[in-house]
């Protein structure tokens, strides 16, 4: 069963250099690549010898059919997902089908667009004394969100939030955030196409980001980044890790 496994690979957020070395090698070696065409940067497949399938127009049965047919011929198959496959990747359903065919598979992680957006913003998502928690979530749309995880409930923590799949519902998002407890002045940054050449960054607050996003006509492929960690140039707190008066496993405190 271990022979010729299928690889689910994280393509990263856009920039073609943000795929892992392992992912890059497996793409180059593949005979068949099924990629999530709505979000994956197609330049990643430039020069690949593989036959390409865009999964954007395929349903689960069709995807599995391509994988099983090609696998039966002994081909090397890559399923390429945007960002990191574990986040809104719809990989589990594919894996369950492969289990039923006794086909082995592995996952190669990728740089999630949440990390891509944070890098573009040069932001630290977990600032001491500001927020030590990052919530990855989405606004409920056609895909339901379990009741205890509704945005307004999560908002009560006032932690850092990276909201996926929701920019088309920005007003609903900000209403929920305010109802849930974020002050209207809380910074919100929307990063469209993080790490792509045509990346766009829109900065605002919970109160005004909706209008700004509409003016910029941002409707998809965007991360809504919420929280005080995104305030520009206003935060004083520094970490204990590099504090000279703080001892830890690899360094003794020096008196200041
Ligand atoms: N597995 C992916 C997420 C897939 S869901 C990951 O780890 O990034 C698709 C959503 O991801 C989009 O609606 C958007 O919210 C976000 N997204 C994907 N690529 C993005 C990018 N380059 N910039 C900003 N957001 C992105």
Explain how this protein is built.
The protein is an alpha/beta fold and 256 residues long. It folds into two domains: 6-108, 3-Layer(aba) Sandwich (Cobalt-precorrin-4 Transmethylase, domain 1); 113-230, Tetrapyrrole methylase, C-terminal domain (Methyltransferase, Cobalt-precorrin-4 Transmethylase, Domain 2, 2-Layer Sandwich), CATH 3.30.950.10. 24% of the residues lie in helices and 19% in strands. The chain contains seven helices and ten strands. It has helices at residues 21-29, 60-72, 92-100, 113-120, 151-154, 170-180, 209-215; strands spanning 6-10, 32-35, 51-54, 77-81, 105-108, 134-138, 160-164, 187-192, 200-205, 222-226. The strands form two sheets. It has a five-stranded parallel beta sheet, with helices on both faces. The protein has a five-stranded mixed beta sheet with strand order 6-7-10-8-9, with helices on both faces. Helix 2 (60-72) crosses helix 3. The longest helix has 13 residues, at 60-72. The chain is globular. The protein starts with 5 loop residues before the first strand and ends in a 30-residue tail after the last strand. The model has no long low-confidence stretch (mean pLDDT 94). Residues 13-14, 39, 81-84, 87-89, 112-113, 116-117, 164-165, 191, 193-196, 221-223 line the site of S-adenosyl-L-homocysteine (SAH). Residues 13-14, 39, 81-84, 87-89, 112-113, 116-117, 164-165, 191, 193-196, 221-223 line the site of S-adenosyl-L-homocysteine.
């Amino acid at each position: 069963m271990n022979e010729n496994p299928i690889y689910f690979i994280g393509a990263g957020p856009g920039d073609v250099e943000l795929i892992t070395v392992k992912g890059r090698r497996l793409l180059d070696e593949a005979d068949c690549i099924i990629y999530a065409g709505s979000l994956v940067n197609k330049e990643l497949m430039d020069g690949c010898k593989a036959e390409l399938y865009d999964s954007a127009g395929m349903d689960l049965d069709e995807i599995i059919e391509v994988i099983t047919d090609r696998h039966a011929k002994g081909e090397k198959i890559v399923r390429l997902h945007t960002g990191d496959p574990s986040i809104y990747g719809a990989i589990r359903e594919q894996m369950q089908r492969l289990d039923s065919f006794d086909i082995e598979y592995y996952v190669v992680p990728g740089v999630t667009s949440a990390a891509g957006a944070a890098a573009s913003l040069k932001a630290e998502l977990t600032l001491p004394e500001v927020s030590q928690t990052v919530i990855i979530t989405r606004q409920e749309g056609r895909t339901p969100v379990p009741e205890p995880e509704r945005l307004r409930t999560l908002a009560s923590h006032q932690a850092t939030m990276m909201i996926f799949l929701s920019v088309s519902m920005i007003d609903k998002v900000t209403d929920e955030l305010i109802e849930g407890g974020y002050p209207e002045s809380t910074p919100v940054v929307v990063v469209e196409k993080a790490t792509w050449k045509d990346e766009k960054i829109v900065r605002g607050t919970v109160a005004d980001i909706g209008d700004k996003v509409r003016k910029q006509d941002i409707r998809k492929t965007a991360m809504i980044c919420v929280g005080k960690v995104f305030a520009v140039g206003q935060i004083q707190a520094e970490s204990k890790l590099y504090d000279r008066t703080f001892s830890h496993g690899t360094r003794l405190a020096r008196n200041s």
